[in-house]
């Protein structure tokens, strides 16, 4: 209910603070928290997500072929 400074008519109004600002703050803080957690997970996955995967690399030379079998660093 909008506050019109006339709270003596049995209405439940709180003229001390604006509820819209409180809701906006909660929404913005929640979205920022989700963004930071997502970015943190992405950075962690970037550095730790590919460690230890099997790989095979084949080199072809003029008269021979070499294959390296190992794990990523």
Please, could you describe this protein's structure?
This protein is an alpha+beta fold. The protein has one domain. It has one helix at residues 19-48; strands spanning 54-60, 65-71. A two-stranded antiparallel sheet has the order 1-2. The longest helix is centred in the middle third of the chain and has 30 residues, at 19-48.
Give short descriptive properties of this protein.
single chain, 73 residues, alpha+beta, two-stranded antiparallel sheet, 1 helix, 2 strands, 41% helix, 19% strand
| Side-by-side strand order of the widest sheet | 1-2
Biggest beta-sheet profile: 2 strands, antiparallel
Strands, total number = 2
Calculate Rg over CA atoms.
30 Å
* Mean pLDDT over all positions: 79
The outline comes out as: rod-shaped
- Specify the number of helices: 1
**Ends apart, CA distance between termini:** 61 Å
Helix content: 40-55%
Question: Order of SSEs, N→C?
Answer: HEE
Strand portion: 15-25%
Summing up helix and strand content along with how strands pair, one would put the structural category as alpha+beta
Instruction: Show unreliable segments.
Output: none
């Amino acid at each position: 209910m909008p506050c019109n400074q006339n709270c003596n008519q049995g209405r439940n109004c709180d003229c001390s603070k604006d509820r819209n600002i409180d809701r906006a703050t909660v929404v913005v803080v929640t979205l920022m928290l989700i963004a930071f957690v997502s970015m943190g997970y992405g950075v962690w996955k970037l550095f730790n997500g590919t460690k230890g995967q099997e790989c095979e690399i084949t080199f072809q030379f003029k008269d021979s072929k070499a294959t390296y079998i190992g794990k990523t660093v």
